[in-house]
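WARN no homologs supplied; continuing
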Amino acid sequence: MSADTVRLNADVVVVGAGPVGLALAMDLAWRGVEVIVLEARPRGEPPNVKSNHVSARSMEIFRRLGVAGKVRDAGLPADYPNDVAYRTAFLGREITRIPIPCRADRYTAAGGPDTDWPTPEPPHRINQIYLEPVLFAHLEAMPGVRILSATTLTDFTQSEHGVVARATDAQGTAVEITCAYLVGCDGGRSGVRKAIGATLSGDVALQHVQSSYIRAPSLLPMLRKKGGVPAWASFSLNPQQSGNVYAIDGRETWLVHVYLKPGVTDFEAVDRDQAIRTVLGVDGSFAYDLLSKEDWIGRRLIVDRMRRDRVFICGDASHLWVPYAGYGMNAGIADAANLAWLLAARIAGWGADGILAAYEAERLPITEQVSHFAMNHAHAMTKARGAVSSQIDAEGPSADAYRASIAKSTYDLNVQQYCCAGLNFGYYYERSPLIVYDGEVAPPYSMGEFTASTAPGARVPHFTLADGRSLYDAFSHGYNLLRFDPTVDVTALMRAARIKGVPIDLLDIIPVSAPDVYRHKLILARPDQHVAWRGDQIPAEPEALINAIRGADTIRD
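OK structure emitted
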């Protein structure tokens, strides 16, 4: 390393400034951790046009980090419908529609499949080209953060005591960073994943898709002239060429997905221009500009490990699957929220070394579950698209009956994907070294449905406090002990926590305003809003509970 090498220090180095890396860095900084982010792209270079949906669970995380309002103010115009429409083509006959509130009505809309979310932050439809700059600016303003744009990680070494990361900037200057931990959020081609010896396995080719980012100022006026109602996502159902059109700016830019038919794997064999026109329902005179294009293969690939000693991976670096409903990005943000508090606890000193084992133990099983949801839906969608016949756009009673049948099956299949409460709130950690289980298993969940539960490992069910605040807004940075009966003495538990430096705040729920699912007098909520323990009185040995939740010991059934 030459004398002019730039030498830096940080608690954590995050490799990659996509949404997952930015979320991780924000969460770490929010917890007082010093972070350096390495991003290969130059500052201000826009991301790829992908990932059009921020889930409710991700919005909860952004709310905690103080950026949810900025995220929700970006993207489509406030009054632009967020519906998902199914038509014979973008400008063709409408078959069915999944109603989703526009941004202006998101907090007040009632009825329909995408309202009454059990959270202070329902989902938000926004493309990554608008999301990422908001997150970047928010992170950049946080103390304890340094973002090195146009800087590429070249290699790293680790020891018992830390990690040394080596990188090069756009001018060829060498950068050496000494840190405690390094996290690869560097995408599907992750160099960090390869360096730690993690291996992807699963289904290598579920779907072949041509994606085209276009500018077509006349498309929306043409739709309205035909009496059509705009939608955030518009699927084209026809036997010639199925596809999907996402509204990007709500005015003139669109992302067009063309789904290659089963068995077709050669992207060049499909005329991109003609396929786009068929999906849109326009002829050769229609004018549009192709801004960018990407051909991709939908996969279901999961790593066999998410960590090697002091180096971790998050997001697409650890899982790749068919990108329905933004599952990949949102699962990555959930990875980041899980890892952030664990690293912060270890760096602060109250987390024992064993606390870091929870990341892989908790997130790998969830990743496997979600990937199968996405894969199974991809197969169902492919089958449904292939079954559409020419009757979809015919006239007469028989065609009307056929369209009614397609409308019902299409709605039923897809409403669970776009209104996916189960994936947001149903998942739970069932074999974590940091959770004290009591024999009750959290309820099963599906893509669209879940049952709220306080079983250890489940998400702490949301409710509104008597003073009007969200329960989550009352939570502190660390653990929170919810007490529903003020006569229960918790002194010994709080003392044990103080001795070990474990941050636990007591939150008395008075008057009791919690839903019936809260059957116990005490609920211990983790920093990531999962239930760590529950009971009607503190354990006879509170020190053992404290050791369990800080990764120094484990209480078993």
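The radius of gyration is 25 Å.
OK
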